[in-house]
Amino acid sequence: MPVHKKKDITPSAENPKAESSSLTLPEQEEFRQYLRRLAVSAVQVLLEQVMREELEQCIGASWGEVTPNRRGYRNGSYTRDLVTSTGRIEDLSVPRDREGVFHSQAFERYSRYEPEVAEALTQMFVSGTSTHKVGEVAQTLMGVAPSASAVSRLNQSLTEQYETWRERPLLSHYRVIYLDGIHFTVRHGAQTDATMILTALGVDLEGSREVLAFRASAEESKDGWCALLQGLRTRGMKEVDLLVTDGHEGLLAAIAELFPSTLRQRCLVHKQRNVMSAIPKREQQEVMAELKGIWHQETKEEALLNLTAFKAKYQKRYPEAIRSLCEDEEHLLTFYAFPPVMHRYIRSTNAIESLFSNVRQRTDQIDAFTTETSCLTIV
């Protein structure tokens, strides 16, 4: 009988192409999260090794070493979480000593955030970014959003910085001080109210500008301005060559009480607005050109002649405009007592208005501040 060949029962090799097509790659987000976990794990290993070496230097002996230079003993470790720029480490092992004197330089005591992370979040708050937006950005970059308590702690650090700044000593002599206020909405319990932030901006004898003080007040009252001005004196300011202000009665009353002999310049930009509000729009361009011409004369004598002519020309036609112009008239041309190079800078409160514009760019996203302290801190 013929012998039948035995059939090969060894399974044939699978098609490599088919095999490769059956492999499934992880989704992009899943892969990114995997890389983040690897990075966080590597950072944790590094931090724990650094802290062990720090403790060794602190107590003066390695593990199990007997040495006359030993200054303490190890006492196990504890675990804590720490948010780093890489991500959250949930079970970081922190070594400790029996006496409790060891503290790692890797992070601040009691802080849940790496110093660089805390600083970045703080800068976002200062720039006017909302708490919700800060959380979204932190979640995207680090995989964790700051909790309400973390936000509170960060804001507390800002408050401490503000208090240090608010109480700092001042120079004894300033060339110019600009005074004005800016309003914000602040929550008081279940209600929101307008709060004025009274502001003093100083120019020293070298020409450098510096914000001297902020003070929260319900309104621009005499008491509020007196408190701010007295605070400047308490912190060392003794002499001011010129005060530049608008015409608010509370501010003027405070200046009359505390700085009666100091020269004062009425803001001409505010004055122009007040006068123009009583002039018909069809004539405002012509009248404005004449009004500005008064304070652009080379000498005070020429400016006074132009002022007299302006009043005579428009007294009968626009008495309300002239009445507004004559209010605080004796302080309209004070700037002529100073060198011409200074005139454009001291005729108005534009310097402090520029500051307020800068502040608004950072606070426009904040509908209402939770407290006066948080408002002052961000400003």
Description:
- This protein has 379 residues and is of the alpha/beta class.
- It has four domains: 29-63 and 71-107; 113-167; 170-262 and 365-379, Nucleotidyltransferase, domain 5, CATH 3.30.420; 268-347.
- It has 14 helices and seven strands.
- It has helices at 16-22, 28-59, 115-126, 131-142, 148-166, 222-234, 249-258, 268-276, 281-294, 300-314, 319-326, 340-346, 350-363, 372-378, and strands at residues 74-83, 88-97, 173-188, 191-203, 209-217, 239-245, 263-266.
- The protein has a five-stranded mixed β-sheet with strand order 5-4-3-6-7, sandwiched between helices. A two-stranded antiparallel ribbon has the order 1-2.
- A hairpin with a 5-residue loop joins β4 (191-203) and β5.
- It is elongated, with a radius of gyration of 34 Å.
- The termini are far apart.
- The model has no long low-confidence stretch (mean pLDDT 82).
